[in-house]
Amino acid sequence: MSRIRCILRGLDVKTYIFLFAIIPMCTLGVYIHGQKISYFLRPLWEKPPKPFHVIPHYYHENVSMENLCKLHGWGVREFPRHVYDAVLFSNEIEILTLRWKELYPYITEFVLLESNSTFSGLPKPFVFNSNRAQLKFVEPRLTYGTIGGRFKKGENPFIEEAYQRVALDQLLKIAGITDDDLLIMSDVDEIPSAHTINLLRWCDQVPSIIHLQLKNYLYSFEFLLDEKSWRASVHRYKSGKTRYAHYRQSDDILADSGWHCSFCFRRISDFIFKMKAYSHNDRVRFSHYLSPDRIQKVICKGADLFDMLPEEYTFKEIIGKMGPIPHSYSAVHLPAFILENAKEYKFLLPGNCMREG
């Protein structure tokens, strides 16, 4: 203690301020904003991925399928391929309805797998099963399966996610998929446009694996973030080789192929559930992030639920996307089912940011 007193007597006022004010404030700042600092400095240690080969997308309702296939450099088939749409389902019943209504004319079999566990290991009810009556229009073409969660505390959520995707491979075989059928691999909220799937099923010589470039929306079709959503893909199925996945599997991507509407929920409670349940639940760093009042304000502002900076690879793109997403007032070229049922789905349309409590 005597040595400490001697050391302290030898310090001037500026040193005291530095030790007992500035250092604690900096430590607190790093604790609160460390994630932002890490994301902002990302370009220093991480290079952008290899660019996709973007395939121009031609479409007009008055142009024949033969001409559309030729414009893409592909041949036209005598009859279309069978198409299987396979998804893992959590609780996004409105977006699932929208997806199935959009794709219904061109899908041979809808395949849906539901677990009683979230990716983060939280128990959940079988939401689809309890809402099945309102989706009865797909019943003749539906293969539905359930799987029990493993509920391992502290495990990386991506392990549970991978476990469920492997189970979805098995469900696809039960559904009857065969070689050269088309398989759509995407999350429920990554919705290919109907004309995109119709094009791919009718055209010959399409790539065996092709990613879909989707318009990237947040909360509703009022907040267009960018057009960089790429994880959705369509595969020409090969027995023993095709595996259901949600990462990059090809260098080919078809431009302007649909919509990705992330966190597009009707109710605030669904936002809270998703924030705690999905694979990136570690982004909920503070309990006040789950406050209903805060979530409502963030939605209407077009800000980030997790108070994060954009996940980009250059300082120019990070700075360009900082702050709230600009409002868009265009409802042109959206899924037809939304506009046909605008009263029911107004929460997805511009100017309707308020959510049910």
From TrEMBL:
<dbReference type="Pfam" id="PF04724">
    <property type="entry name" value="Glyco_transf_17"/>
</dbReference>
<dbReference type="GO" id="GO:0006044">
    <property type="term" value="P:N-acetylglucosamine metabolic process"/>
</dbReference>
<keyword id="KW-1133">Transmembrane helix</keyword>
<feature type="transmembrane region" description="Helical">
    <location>
        <begin position="16"/>
        <end position="34"/>
    </location>
</feature>
<keyword id="KW-0812">Transmembrane</keyword>
<protein>
    <recommendedName>
        <fullName>Beta-1,4-mannosyl-glycoprotein 4-beta-N-acetylglucosaminyltransferase</fullName>
    </recommendedName>
</protein>
<dbReference type="InterPro" id="IPR006813">
    <property type="entry name" value="Glyco_trans_17"/>
</dbReference>
<dbReference type="GO" id="GO:0003830">
    <property type="term" value="F:beta-1,4-mannosylglycoprotein 4-beta-N-acetylglucosaminyltransferase activity"/>
</dbReference>
<dbReference type="GO" id="GO:0016020">
    <property type="term" value="C:membrane"/>
</dbReference>
<keyword id="KW-0472">Membrane</keyword>
